[in-house]
Amino acid sequence: MNTLKIILFSLSAVSSYAALLYKLFSMRRSWRDPAYIVLMTTLILQCVTFTLGALSLSIGSLFGIPNLAILILHLAAVAYCISAQLLLMLWANPPAEIRTRIRAWIVSGAVLFVVLTVLFFIGNKPGTPGTAFAVGSSDPVILTYLLLFIISQAVPCVTIYLQCLPYARSTSRVWLRRTLRTLAVGAVVLFLYCATRAVNIVSPALGWHLGAWAIAPSVFSALGIVIVSFGLTMPSWGEHVSSVARWQRNYRSYRALYPLWHSLYESSPGIALEPPTEGDTDRRWSDLHYRLHRRVIEIRDGWRALRPYMDRADTPDGDQAMAEARKIRQALEAKTSGLAPAESQDNGAFDDHDAKTFAAEVAWLTQVSEAYGKLA
Known about the structure:
Shape: elongated
Helix content: over 70%
Number of helices: 13
Largest sheet: 2 strands, antiparallel
CATH topology of the largest domain: Rhopdopsin 7-helix transmembrane proteins
Pfam family, one: DUF6545
Strand order of the largest sheet: 1-2
Protein name: DUF6545 domain-containing protein
Transmembrane segments: 6-25, 37-63, 69-92, 104-122, 142-162, 183-206, 212-232
CATH superfamily of the largest domain: Rhodopsin 7-helix transmembrane proteins
CATH architecture of the largest domain: Up-down Bundle
Structural class: mainly alpha
Domain DUF6545: 246-372
Number of domains: 2
Keywords: Membrane, Transmembrane, Transmembrane helix
């Protein structure tokens, strides 16, 4: 059982150190940001807590005081929970607006430090085994100490969960919203740790024998910390993930628009701000967002230049994208032959499609280009 606990504590510690090292790369540009300072404090305390968790059961005494490593572990865990609470408040509010609440949490933590320390030294009589503080005991002082400690862990889980969801609904930042939802899930899992740990704590006093179920708190703790570590770093790497996804989406659109753009460019070379060079017509990797905008504008310019050759009587029906592609092809053929229809479209605004956003415009032109490619 102890071996499995050490493995789970080690897993939590590894995820904590990974998150800490990742956030260290932001120190140069963020070291003056209060939220970043609290985030780094939270991650450091998280590392300390779970490193001590992996080592405390094997450390009989520290500075000549038996079980002192367990007290330090518990105090670090309390500081970690308070720091996480402060971090969440700083993410959602300007520091000036929450100074009183920050002070209240810090004072509460300091009082709890004193109470836990006093109870520890009263209950830590000579010969008291480490398992009494690590698992549970029928001694009323140790039982009070442990219940007070686990309540100090459960309360931030509840407050963080209750704050994360409203903050997630109110923020317009996509990755902050995902972060808050992830932290809410982590808070639920860690609350399950607190609930199962409370059962473990009172089981000796009630004469319960939990058997293999006694490992449940360690499982919930490790899972919760992995989720929280993932969530705490999400605002940093999430934007990079979005950038990569956006680049891939733009690249697919840029290439998909090429058949339509190329035919319009051949018909009206003047639409191109930068004439294509041989070999890179649809393999441009840099400035892709700008190039996609240019391609859309040039397609619309080329389309407008064909309006005098589009038959007014030829109205789209059925698949609108295919119908528009067919009209463009017929107009290109008419322009090449010099035979304009008797009733042509004018050069005014497009009345065939009205995209409200650039993304919608790209999606529409992509459909037309793909349909045009099938005709060609």
